[in-house]
Amino acid sequence: MTKKDMLSGLDKVKKELANQLYEAVTAIVLDYDKLGLWVLVENPRNSLYWDTSFARRYIQAIETFWIDFHNCAHGGQRDKLTRLWSNRSWGKTSELCCDKRHSHASWKPRIVNGRLSFPTAEEAAYHWLFCERVVHLVEQLAVENGCEAHHNLHEQVKAKHLTNFQRYVFDALPRSSTLKPLVAEFGRYITLAVNPQNPGFLESNLQKLPKGSKIVSRQLLLWENFRVEMADQLELESWLDKEPMVQSRIRWLTS
Amino acid sequence: MADKLELESWLDKGADGPEQDQKAVVELCRYGILSEPHEFVTMQVWDSF
Asked: Is B39:A191 a contact under the CB 8 Å cutoff?
């Protein structure tokens, strides 16, 4: 934003605060990139922020990877288009566009407990599913870059990861989940290859499994790298559902 | 060009067995129908007693 903006009063204060925030973000991005850290900046896809001099400084200085996605593709209720700027190609598979096979919540403001509630505020919060996917992505990258993920006590002892281990030595039970169980407390792992925009399939499968079963890993992968041997079950039906658009596309391709 | 009958059969009946699954995925990728990523999910399952 230019200095000669002719603003005054509250508008001027807001602009100055926004400029300070943008300047801080630019400084953080440039410094963290120099340190070799992975940096992500998030804003709506159509935000004017991306065209400001503040954003352009780091966009032009650093190799840029854009990740655009609809919130509804990551568990949100609406098709808000969000953009992530990244200084690494990691997370590119999070780029999911709404497949238009589900309905969206309304954008109309509504009255909740006597107060006007704006859906835009709800969509500003990250959905739980999106957070889960990001956490699993970070874990996967950490393991790929040399970190160790231990699944039982044997692996922890072998790797000399012995925080709180003295409690076992003194015959006391560990008070936290830092120490893994002596033996695995579950029966087996099963792996599924599913449509990320069809969370109902996963939920219904999880409900059929014995109580206590849980998802321990999520990875968004390109189909090009898919091999049937990787998964115990493949869910293709929701990709090839009876929607006329998909059917007609296949028939056009094969005609 | 993919086998029209084969693709339409996948549409109507679904793939049958791992080999058919793999063929279906390869063909559908080739035609851009599976252009978006899939999610590979691992679940820890307790044995029922």
From this structure: no
How far does the CA of residue A164 sit from the closest CA of chain B (Å)?
Answer: 25
Nearest-angstrom CA–CA distance, A138 and A122 = 25
Specify whether the CB–CB gap between A80 and A97 falls below 8 A: no
Q: Into how many domains does chain B fold?
A: 1
ipTM: 0.77
Residues with Cβ < 8 Å from B42, sequence gap 6 or more? A189, A190, A191, A215, A216, A217, A218
Between strands A188-194 and A233-234, the pairing is parallel
β-strand partners of A192: A233, B41
Helices A9-34 and A53-61: angle between axes, nearest 10 degrees: 10
Beta strands B38-45; A188-194: pairing state: antiparallel
Which structural domain range is residue B24 located in?
A: 1-49
Q: Is B15 on the interface with A (CB under 8 A)?
A: yes
Q: What is the pTM of this model?
A: 0.81
Span A148-192, pLDDT tens digits: 877 777 888 888 777 777 777 777 776 667 777 777 777 888 999
Element (H, E) at A22: helix A9-34
- Which of B39, B42, B47, B48 should one mutate to test binding to chain A, selecting the residue with the greatest count of A CBs within 10 A? B39
> How far apart, in whole angstroms, are the C-alpha atoms of residue A217 and residue A135?
9
3-state helix, strand, coil in chain B (%, to 5): 45, 15, 35
Could you give phi then psi for residue A38, rounded to 5 degrees?
Answer: -80, 125
Q: Which residues contact A116 (CB under 8 A, 6 or more apart)?
A: A109, A110
